[in-house]
Amino acid sequence: VMMAADYFTAPGMNMPISIQEMLRRTSRIYFSNIPTILKVAVTIFVPAQIIIGIAGKKILPWLTHIESDLNEEIEKDYSRMIHLLSTFLYFILLEIVGCLLYSMAEAPIAEITKNAHAGLAKTTYSEAGHTVKEFFPKIFVAILLMSIASSITLCLLIFPGIYLALSWWITCPVIVVEGKGIFDSMSKSWELVSGYRCDLFKIYCAYLLSYVLVVFAINTTLFLFLAPRLVRYIFGYCIPVISFRPLGLVLRSVVYFDLRARKESLNQAKLLIEIRAKKSEGFGIENDVNEGTERGIAEGSSDIEMIECTTSPGWASQSEPLKMEGMESIW
After folding, report:
1. What is the three-class DSSP state of 110?
2. Is the dihedral of CA 183, 185, 188, 193 positive or negative?
3. What's the sign of the alpha-carbon dihedral 142, 146, 148, 149?
4. CA distances from 86 to 65, 70, 144 (A)
5. What secondary structure does DSSP assign to 287-314, as a single string?
6. How far, in whole angstroms, is CA 97 from its chain's centroid?
7. Quick one: DSSP state of residue 103?
């Protein structure tokens, strides 16, 4: 059984990030909080899939009409290039719609992962929902900017696009956990992943390969049993999206905490104090942690057993959104 302190890598660790260890921590947090995670997934991803499907059907005829008009107006045969541009624009537009919808799940999943690392009470569905109101504008704009930049560079030059995507991969956990603005969070993500981009690429590929294999296996089975198209869509696509996409979001946050542990010597005790400081700043909470906690941190102890946290009911559920006066710009 993993304890919260086991989620943190030893400070100053220069060894490559272990794919197996990241997946182990991710699966532990995922299955420990699966009721809340699945509720978040169903609430957000099911409507998102419906809206994206409708948007795709509306956008495609419009782009096809524009493509046909351009082919008629241009004398030379640029039909292939126009078709590629039209296809690229189609995916960009759907990506924008997806950003708007899927980004709503980033904050709740990051909050759940943060609480697991801090050893706090499990995040409830209502508490997770509060984080959407607080962080959704920042996360949406950040993902939108990163998606457009990565997509353009990926189309023009493949490797720079991958490089940018990996460099900004943990921006959303930075926004939720540290409360930074969009550009500061992107900069912090770039700084944390420096030196570990190859490891992140391997981790993401392992996750993506697992997702593809599961989808392929389910769809192949349904096809062999001659399942109706609607059944194949529900069980072959929607259910994998609902179950696997949150797993990827948990993995993103797990990697974020691992990198902070390596580069900033973050541990459970320091994370608890960081959370407490943010809540105190937002609500004026006093005496949430007893004198033993403060004494342990003041002495620089890295052993969480030396730090005894006694919490009030409000601190135990501690996922209420920050309501700071004079809130800084989302940038």
Report:
1. helix
2. negative
3. positive
4. 10, 11, 20
5. S-S-HHHHHHHHTT---GGG------HH
6. 17
7. G
Mean pLDDT of 236-241: 78
Alpha helices, DSSP H, located in 157-238 = 158-167, 171-178, 182-193, 197-224, 229-233
Q: Are the C-beta atoms of residues 49 and 102 closer than 8 Å to each other?
A: no
Cα within 13 Å of Cα(31), Cβ side:
7
Q: What tokens does 196 get?
A: 């570990």
pLDDT in the model for residue 294: 46
> Any idea how long the chain is?
331
User: HSE-up of 83 (CA within 13 Å, CB side)?
Assistant: 4
Distances (CA, A) of 216 to 2, 213, 219, 308: 32, 5, 5, 48
Structure tokens at 141: 């704009």
How far, in Å, CA of 220 to CA of 236, rounded?
A: 9
Residue recorded with tokens 């995507």:
165
pTM attached to this predicted model? 0.75
As a whole number of angstroms, the distance between CA 225 and CA 325 comes to 59
Structure tokens belonging to residue 128:
């997770």
Question: Measured between alpha carbons, how far is 172 from 111 in angstroms, rounded to an integer?
Answer: 11
Average pLDDT, the chain: 78
Q: Which two tokens stand for residue 244?
A: 């696997």
Are 148 and 164 in contact by the 8 Å Cβ rule? The answer is no
Nearest to 102 by CA among 46, 33, 32, 150: 46
Residue spans of alpha helices (H) in the chain: 19-32, 34-73, 79-102, 106-118, 125-156, 158-167, 171-178, 182-193, 197-224, 229-233, 239-264, 268-283, 291-298, 313-317
Classify the phi-psi angles of 119: left when phi > 0, otherwise alpha if psi is within -120 to 50, otherwise beta: left
Tell me how far apart the alpha carbons of residues 322 and 324 are, in angstroms, rounded to a whole number: 6
* Residue position matching structure tokens 């609430």: 43
Residue 259 CA: distances (Å) to CA of 22, 170, 329: 11, 10, 26
pLDDT at 129 over 80: yes
